[in-house]
């Protein structure tokens, strides 16, 4: 069944339809938000807030034309709301410090390369980083990214092209420093 049909069912009061959407999209949504915010606890909170907003819209009878871009738009806007609240950033940073750095990391080439890529992506502005994550990690089409971010397809194409070029320059510079 299509996601939009689950939203229709939710609008009719069938809560199990919402459970299916959560099951289907929790992991990819968490991955997207975590890559933007770099904080596991905060990412989980924003995923929950995103699903709460989806649920509330469904109960009001709203059914999006395309569910995935609409969901990512809600998630992106929720992240933007978070960044507009300096107090909440401070609270979460404090929580992160309290957790400490007692994690054990296994050093595997793949993980190092992946970490290097993520660190390089994180050097990009939020505009470039967001379109690259949506395209390459969430596998959204240009048109879906445009809907999710409320920008034109040409802007999506431009940001992806420029973002990739900037990323290439960052990776080349990092490689020179390492080599």
From TrEMBL:
One Pfam family this sequence matches: Sigma70_r4_2
Record flagged with keyword Kinase: no
Protein's UniProt keywords contain Transcription regulation: yes
Entry's family note: Belongs to the sigma-70 factor family. ECF subfamily.
Source organism phylogeny: Bacteria, Bacillati, Bacillota, Bacilli, Bacillales
The protein's name: RNA polymerase sigma-H factor
Residues in RNA polymerase sigma factor 70 region 4 type domain copies: 115-167
Annotated gene: algU_1
InterPro entries in the record: RNA_pol_sigma-70-like, RNA_pol_sigma-70_dom, RNA_pol_sigma70_r2, RNA_pol_sigma70_r4_t2, RNA_pol_sigma_r2, RNA_pol_sigma_r3/r4-like, WH-like_DNA-bd_sf
